[in-house]
Write a structure and sequence with these properties.
Helix content: 25-40%
Strand content: 25-35%
Largest sheet: 5 strands, antiparallel
Shape: flat
Number of strands: 24
Number of helices: 10
Length: 420
């Protein structure tokens, strides 16, 4: 029993140390990368950057030309318009478009999507706002929509099924041709937004429907039939849909399909616009969408790269840009980490809200370190006369657990022989 307890304690200690020792290593070595922030300049008609150097922030364009803060504001009027207006130097017009401060404000949009927004737990209960209440603000409804094999509205106060409303919506679903089981329901369940876009429903045939509730009655539209883009909609099998209402009501939603292509859906006719990313990975990349009076910029950025696309307001591509940079894994800290730690354990992943067991392995050289540590532990124990069966097994396990097992080895109680 004591033997088994010691081995279990050794294994658990090694597992916990595989999380905390690398964590402490990275804190002490202070490894980090300086990632750029990218903007599109309508004046230069190219991308410009905030780049962090060793000693200062550098404002540069694609060609490496550096600008002062004042100069940088003048080439990014859609980003710096407030300061330019305050200074009295906002241009009257640019690219044939009159620059009015109120119009610039009205057309400004900002949307952000992180991997953990996509890969997170969800509950099969959805908020469907009523857009016909006559109120100046959105009111949180008392019921929630549930979609299993049929339409159900559950009253949150009484936890009871609202039979009449459920049947009303079921009839609307059947009339619209929605096929069960439903693959996804996507909306923005917040009252802190300028208006309610409604919900987007992906049915069993990967078709996308738009659902709104107006005066307690459902309005359902198949997006394929909403405009002249039915052939494009046939290409799209959504995996995730982002709904983020903006003041100008131009962006209806954004879609990541099962092929990991990124789409914008814009306008009253739900026009799908493919963003021509080359290496988009929604599991690792954060997406930023910034719209202005003159252009729309969509950027996907990860720990080691970015892609950015600038569109004009008709969603024709104006310019694209890609860049990559070294990560902490390629720095000396990363190489040392991979050489001394046989594996690293985490219970959270920055790209998901799911809690789990996430492990990454070191490089083959770590096996040499493991063998040396196992030999050291064995020789010291033999010299001290403490080479019992438990120490023998733990020394063998150090071949796999490496430095974590080596640390745990010296804290496990010794099974001393009874005195004669």
């Amino acid at each position: 029993m004591i033997f088994c307890t010691r081995i279990i304690l050794f294994a658990l200690s090694s597992l916990m140390l595989s999380h905390y020792v690398p964590y402490l290593f990275w804190i002490l070595t202070d490894a980090h990368t300086n990632q750029p922030y990218i903007l599109y300049s309508n004046v230069k008609e190219q991308f410009v950057f905030f780049r962090h150097g060793e000693d200062a922030l550098h404002l540069v364009d694609e060609e490496g030309n550096e600008y002062s803060r004042g100069e940088f504001r003048t080439i990014t009027p859609m980003f710096s318009y407030r300061q330019l207006y305050y200074d009295g130097i906002l241009p009257e017009a640019l690219n044939g478009v009159k620059l009015d401060i109120k119009k610039i404000e009205a057309e400004r949009t900002s949307v952000r999507l992180k991997p953990k927004d996509i890969y997170s737990p969800s509950i099969n209960l959805y908020i469907v706002f009523d857009n016909g209440t006559g109120s100046l603000r959105l009111d949180m409804p008392e019921d929630f929509l549930r979609l299993n094999d049929k339409v159900e509205f559950i009253n949150a106060r009484t936890n009871s099924l609202e039979t009449e409303k459920s049947q009303l919506f079921q009839n609307a679903f059947d009339k619209a041709g929605i096929r069960f089981p439903i693959k996804g329901v996507f909306s923005n369940p917040s009252t802190l937004k300028p208006y309610d876009e409604g919900s987007f429903i992906v049915d069993a045939e990967n078709r996308v429907f738009h659902l709104r509730q107006v005066k307690q009655k459902p309005e359902i539209k198949l997006l394929k039939d909403a405009g002249k883009y039915s052939k494009i909609w046939d290409e799209i099998a959504p995996e995730y849909i982002l709904v983020a209402e903006q003041g100008n009501k131009e962006l209806r939603c954004a879609i990541i399909d099962t092929q990991h292509r990124f789409w914008l859906v814009v306008g009253e006719d739900f026009r799908p616009v493919k963003v021509p990313f080359k290496n988009f990975d929604p599991t690792k990349m954060e997406v930023r969408l910034n719209g202005s009076l003159l252009h729309v910029q969509v950027t996907a950025q990860s720990d080691d790269s970015l892609e950015s696309v600038a569109f004009d307001r008709d969603y024709n591509v104006k310019r694209t840009y890609t860049e990559s940079w070294p990560t902490t894994a390629t720095m000396w800290q990363g190489k040392v980490s991979d050489s001394i730690f046989p594996w690293t354990t985490n219970f959270r992943n920055n790209n998901t809200l799911y809690t789990g067991f996430y492990a990454s392995l070191g490089n083959p050289f770590v096996l040499v370190i493991n063998v040396l540590l196992a030999l050291v532990s064995m020789l010291i124990s033999i010299k001290q006369g403490l080479w019992d069966s438990g120490r023998k097994v733990m020394s063998a396990l150090i071949l796999f657990s490496g430095i974590f097992g080596f640390i745990a080895y010296w804290f496990i109680p010794i099974q001393r022989p009874p005195h004669a």
